[in-house]
UniProtKB/TrEMBL annotation:
InterPro entries: FAD-binding_Monooxygenases, FAD/NAD-bd_sf, Flavin_mOase-like. Belongs to the FAD-binding monooxygenase family. It comes from the Bacteria. This is Cyclohexanone 1,2-monooxygenase. GO terms for molecular function: cyclohexanone monooxygenase activity; flavin adenine dinucleotide binding; N,N-dimethylaniline monooxygenase activity; NADP binding. Signal peptide: none annotated. Keywords: FAD, Flavoprotein, NADP, Oxidoreductase. It holds the Pfam family FMO-like. Its EC number is 1.14.13.22. It comes from Corynebacterium comes.
Length: 541
């Protein structure tokens, strides 16, 4: 029996227009010649870099590695001025990519996908986007791992008479110069926005709940000669990054921190501080900063010393100084601590004086003080990794919803696929790699496209990992995470930043090189661990 449907039908529906979605559309449409329909709720491409237009938004991956590597001409034709890319530069890059690969014709922008439901008998997905129903054999989710914003619920926020902004949904054309601004949150984003706004606003109050360790990013101009050298060596540069652990373009250190003298440790930390880069400081100095508590404390103490050196007001310095482990995504900044030497920039330690309420005029803290502000900026991060999936209605085989399936622990095989959801793929889904992300995204897109091509060539109509395979992968990720210090502090890396969200393992911390060889082995084995179903007699399309 076949069901008739008047819904438009395509081979692949792609959701998202960031690194993952755009490359997915290129693969399926331009390389595999499949029919593709893509949806993006934003008004244009760039994903993260469409939404995060806040002042100071900057990549913390070096410019030459925060881009696609799949196309040699694109690599050779692209250029950049500094060692790191600003948000407008990344946006312009994506606009060029869309034009170059003729991707816009597949997209419906300003169109949110609200549900994806698997029709088991027909082996099709029914996707609702912008209120319309579409059908597809494959759904490719590139909905972003840091994309669903986390907005705190603070008493009285709705009474505030000024402007409320979240950095992850920053409107175009906002000018905060001359305003009194409160910035809540001191992660990567909070440090960037404070550094950029400090010199232009009338007054800035930085509300910090947990101070973090940050090192200089090392943003500096790139000369023509440096650019030419990178372009001449691009093949080796990508080869090294993709076979390394964090894929940030440096060789990860292997020497244990405590195996060298205190002077030598100081020298190595100092050199990394001068070079810049958060991942470089954590993974390029010694091999065990992320795994050994004593090594971790040595790195942390060095950064604490730098904060004391830079911040001249001892009270501000005290409030900015972290004392827990150095065990979150490592931060870097372009002058964050110096910003507090300005008279117009203050810091409030929320653990000492928590929010009491927000009033029409500003923020009242537990000491009864009213911090008057015109604008409240929330740099409070994201419901990371599984957040955007949980905000849609997604139903797989047997009508199971993704929220039921991921009750507590979101699970996947290899971060790209999960059981009970056939032909439904994710980019950077739960338990994907924790790295400089473009090369991990490319790795996943290429692997999924290869799997789809394999299915198409072999008459396989439904692909999903077996439950045991998914469980084993979750166990592997949990085991590796358990070897690190990251599990010992609360952060978005384990979903511990969103009230009510159950902390769980969300990343494969085994490194991109290892991840890529696992993917290669799975493909070479003919996709062992997957259930590969042949056509049913009811199949449409
Ligand atoms: P995204 O770029 O997040 O794109 C997902 C898209 O899906 C979004 O445009 C969203 O609107 C769309 N979408 C989601 N749900 C729906 C729906 N239901 N319907 C329709 N559309 C939907 N990573 C690094 O490696 N290095 C960095 O330096 C770095 N800097 C960062 C700085 C900031 C401020 C942030 C927030 C993240 C940063 N990241 C960085 C992580 C960054 O998210 C990734 O590098 C990369 O951009 C992710 O690409 P993506 O395509 O997977 O997702
Ligand atoms: P993060 O790293 O999750 O940081 C969010 C910050 O907001 C952090 O300092 C939080 O404090 C703070 N926060 C969150 N909720 C509250 C409430 N309710 N009150 C006060 N402070 C709060 O997000 P980012 O956007 O900076 O960075 C996320 C990633 O995106 C980053 O790693 C880059 O890859 C880009 P807490 O630490 O929870 O005490």
């Amino acid at each position: 029996m076949s069901t008739q449907s008047s819904s438009p039908s395509v081979d692949v529906i792609v959701i998202g227009a960031g690194f993952g979605g755009l490359y997915g559309v290129h693969k399926f449409a331009n390389e595999l010649n499949m029919s593709v329909l893509a949806f993006e709720k934003a008004s244009g491409p760039a994903g993260t870099w469409h939404w995060n237009r806040y002042p100071g938004a900057l990549s913390d991956t070096r410019s030459h590695l925060y881009r696609y590597s799949f196309d040699k001409d694109l690599l050779q034709d692209s250029s950049w001025e500094n060692t790191y890319l600003t948000q407008p530069e990344i946006l312009a890059y994506f606009e060029d990519v869309v034009e170059r690969f003729d991707l816009a014709r597949h997209y419906r922008f300003n169109t949110e996908v609200t549900s994806s439901v698997y029709l088991e008998d027909e082996q099709l997905w029914e996707v609702t986007a912008g209120g319309q129903i579409y059908r597809a054999r494959y759904v490719f989710n590139a909905v972003g791992l840091l994309s669903a914003v986390n907005m705190p619920d603070i008493a009285g926020l709705d009474t505030f008479e000024g402007l409320v902004l979240h950095t992850g949904a920053w409107p175009e054309g906002i000018d905060l110069s001359g305003k009194r601004v409160g910035v809540v949150g001191s992660g990567s984003t909070g440090t960037q926005v404070v550094t950029a706004l400090g010199p232009v606003v009338e007054h800035l109050t930085h509300f910090i709940r947990t101070p973090q360790y940050s090192v200089p990013v090392g943003k500096r101009p790139v000369s023509e000669a440096e650019l030419a050298e990178i372009k001449a060596n691009y093949e080796q540069i990508w080869e090294q990054a993709k076979n390394s652990s964090v894929a940030f373009g440096f060789e990860e250190a292997t020497t244990p921190a405590m195996s060298v003298s205190a002077q030598e440790r100081e020298r190595v930390f100092h050199q990394a501080w001068e070079e810049g880069g958060g991942f470089n400081f954590m993974f390029g100095t010694f091999g065990d900063i992320a795994t050994d508590v004593a090594a971790n404390e040595a790195a942390a103490a060095f950064i604490r010393g730098k904060i004391a050196e830079i911040v001249t007001d001892p009270e501000k310095a005290r409030k900015l100084t972290p004392h827990d482990l150095y065990a979150r995504r490592p931060l870097c900044d372009d002058g964050f601590y110096d910003t507090f030497n300005r008279d117009n920039v203050d810091v409030v330690a929320l653990k000492e004086t928590p929010f009491q309420e927000i009033t029409p005029e500003g923020v009242v803290t537990a000491d009864g003080k009213l911090h008057e502000v015109d604008v409240l900026v929330f740099a409070t991060g994201f419901d990371a990794v599984d957040g955007n999936y949980r905000r849609m209605e997604i139903r797989g085989r047997g009508g199971v919803s993704i929220n039921e399936h991921w009750d507590g622990q979101p699970s996947s095989y290899l971060g790209v696929t999960t059981s009970k959801f056939p032909n439904w793929f994710m980019i950077l889904g739960p338990n994907g790699p924790f790295t400089n992300l473009p090369p991990s995204i490319e790795t996943q897109v290429e692997w999924i496209a290869e799997l789809v091509a394999f299915a198409e060539a072999n008459g396989i109509t439904a692909v999903e990992p077996e439950e045991a395979t998914v469980e084993a992968w979750t166990d592997t990720c949990r085991e590796i995470a358990g070897m690190t210090v990251f599990t010992k502090v609360d952060s978005w890396i384990f979903g511990a930043n969103v009230p009510g969200k159950k902390p769980s393992v969300l990343f494969y911390l085994g490194g991109l090189g290892n991840y890529r060889s696992i993917l290669r082995d799975v493909a070479d084995s003919g996709y062992q661990g997957f259930a590969l179903a042949r056509a049913k007699d009811t199949v449409l399309v």
